[in-house]
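Backbones bend. Our protein:
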Amino acid sequence: MLMTHRRTLILFPIVHTPEDLGGLADAAAQARPTAMDRQRWHQVLDEVWRGIERAAAALPVAAQGWRVYQDGLPVCEHEQAIVADLAAGGSRNHRLVQRLVERGARLMGTESAELLVEEYQLQKQLLEQDGDGNGEETRRLAAEILVRRDRFIAERIDQTLAPGETGILFLGLVHDLERHLPPDIEVQQPAGRPDHGGG
């Protein structure tokens, strides 16, 4: 009887693809200067995403009791349109979210729009800074925002995931969400955790 009241969060740690990075994609690509580095990185991304896609396809998603949460998706009135735009632009992540919604999962706005804008601006500064003295301070501020984002995501899941429901969360590797979640949410990672950074 108690099992029906358990809340489950299926966590997919992800590595963001260039299609997910928007205006940061070009600057991020510069971090891999050689063609060999870029080719290897694309191979790693493909391996990671094939594993995630297989694990997600095996989930028994139904029309009731399933919610999908997405790293970088703000709580707003346009979640479906944002996912559709990114999926149309080639994002494997957002195409996968669309497939889960088509199978019955309910799409949930996941993040604070204000924090996302603030972090985007800081990440852009970090990618543009090349050894100047402000890098450490910018990194410290970016780390603080990441913690605030994790707290917001955890609160959002806690507020919207009802007893007996299962949430699916796609979240970049740099996050440390689990320490912010309430203890009654059981976290599962069916695709494991990639060994490669970049999320």
About this structure: The chain has a mean pLDDT of 86.
